[in-house]
Amino acid sequence: MTLIDFGAGVTGLLFLGGLVMTQMPKHWQTTSGWLLVSLAGIPLFCMAIAIMVKVPMLLFGVMGWACFHAGRNPRWRR
């Protein structure tokens, strides 16, 4: 990996983080929140997806968990 590749990757993560920040709550829309989401949150999310693809049982578990929580009644939230 060259320095140009590394710089392009970091720049891409920063731009993607800026796109994600449009959907974040107001208290996260700061410079530190943007850097945290860009340089830690997005790579960790991609790593989690890669692990779930590598181990299919995790993927089925996460899909079941997501379906369970998507079907919940919003009035029962705390």
Q: Can you tag this structure with a few keywords?
A:
mainly alpha, 78 residues
Written account of the structure:
- The protein has one domain.
- The model has no long low-confidence stretch (mean pLDDT 82).
- Helix 1 (3-21) crosses helix 2 and helix 2 (31-54) packs across helix 3 (56-70).
- The chain has 78 residues and is mainly alpha-helical.
- The chain is built from 3 helices and no strands.
Oligomer: single chain
Per the principal axes of the C-alpha atoms, what is the gross shape?
flat
**Unreliable segments (pLDDT under 50, ≥5 consecutive)?**
none
Could you tell me how far the N terminus lies from the C terminus, measured between alpha carbons in angstroms?
48 Å
Please indicate the percent range of residues in DSSP E strands (runs of 2 or more).
Answer: under 5%
Per DSSP, the total helix count is 3
Number of strands: 0
What's the helix-strand series?
HHH
Total domain modules: 1
What is the makeup of the main sheet? none
Radius of gyration: 16 Å
Overall helicity: over 70%
Class derived from helix and strand content: mainly alpha
Mean pLDDT: 82
Summarize the structure.
The protein has 78 residues and is mainly alpha-helical. It has one domain.
List the helices and strands and how they pair.
Layout (H helix, E strand, L loop, with lengths): L2 H19 L9 H24 L1 H15 L8
Helix pairs in contact: 1-2, 2-3
